[in-house]
Amino acid sequence: MSAGASILIVDDDIVLARAFSLALQGAGYSPRPAHSAEEALRQLASAPPDAIILDFRMPLINGVGFLYRLRNQPQYEHTPVMVVTGESYLTDEVREELRTLKAEVRLKPIGLDDLLEWTRMLVESGPVTAPPAARPQPGA
Fold first, then answer.
1. So what's the pLDDT on residue 80?
2. Which CATH number goes with the domain that contains 70?
C-alpha cells in the first residue's frame, strides 16, 4: 500500500514541509503539503490522503484542534496520523488525548531515514480503529 500513497503534510514551517515533501516524493510517495490546519482541511475536501503527517504547534488551529476536526468527519475517522513535534515536554494528558484521537507522536528533530521508516509504518498500518499501541522507534 505504500507505493504512491498520498501523504498530507500539515506544517506551518514551509521549509520543513518542503523538505519532508521532497524526501517522501523521492521514496515514491505522493506528498501534499499544507502550511496551516485550515489549508489542510480545505485539501481534505478535494482528495482524501492515505496518511497524514501533522505538526503539533501551529497558529490558530494547532495539531489537536486539527485532529478533532478530522476525526469528526466519518470518512477520516480512521486515517493514520503521525504528529511530529519539537515539544518534548508534552504532558501525559496531551499524549493521552493524542492517543485517543488515534495519532502517533514522534519528536523532532528527525532524520531522513526515520521520516521514511515512520511514514512506511504509518501507511502500512492502514486505517486506525483504536488508539495505537506504542510502536518501537526505528533503530531501537
1. 96
2. 3.40.50.2300
